[in-house]
Amino acid sequence: MEIREYQRWLEEWDRARGWDRVSPSHTLIHALEELGEVARLILQWEGYKNADSLEHLRADPRTPYASGGFGSAAHLTVALFLARTGTQAEHIPFRGAPDIVHNVRAGNVVFGMPQTQVALPLIRAGQLRALAVTTARRAHGGGIRAGNTRRVKSQ
Q: Where are the domains of the chain?
């Protein structure tokens, strides 16, 4: 099949399904989202990037975590958490809480500590899971059921 013949066939295929009315930017966004889903599935199959326990952090000090940039509240909070638990992780700085949430959800990093108001809609939708909160008390309302980081002790 010649390239021109394939292009005509592809145009007819798209037109028959109404896909020719979708802008290229939307197609790219959808493809990237699907790629993130596939990447998360592969990582899950390989048994990698699971930060449900401190044992994981102790076993792999290169576990990547997201922050809102060097010296940000999210960076310093995770640094304090790691110091209190005697664990290590690799800092990957981003440009704020939305980037933290996006990269955790996409599987680019294992965890982060964004502001609650940014993560809450995705936690409620079941797309993110809250492991702990940094408030003085456990969180039970607003769709979050998680302990606080004060209860985590180094072992």
A: 3-45, 54-151
pLDDT at 126 over 70: yes
Cα Rg of the chain (Å, integer): 20
Closest to 129 measured CA to CA, from 103, 151, 105: 105
Contact 65, 78 (CB under 8 A): yes
Task: Map residue 139 onto helix, strand or coil.
Answer: strand
Tokens 């995770």 locate to 78
Burial of 114 (0-12, 13-18, 19+ CB in 10 A): buried
Annotation: CATH topology of 54-151:
D-Maltodextrin-Binding Protein; domain 2 (3.40.190)
C-beta separation of 107 from 39 below 8 A:
yes
Indicate yes or no: pTM above 0.70. no
19: region left, alpha or beta (phi > 0 left; psi from -120 to 50 alpha):
alpha
* pLDDT tens digits for range 45-101: 555 444 556 777 788 888 899 988 888 888 888 888 888 788 889 999 998 888 888
Tell me what the pLDDT averaged over the chain comes to: 76
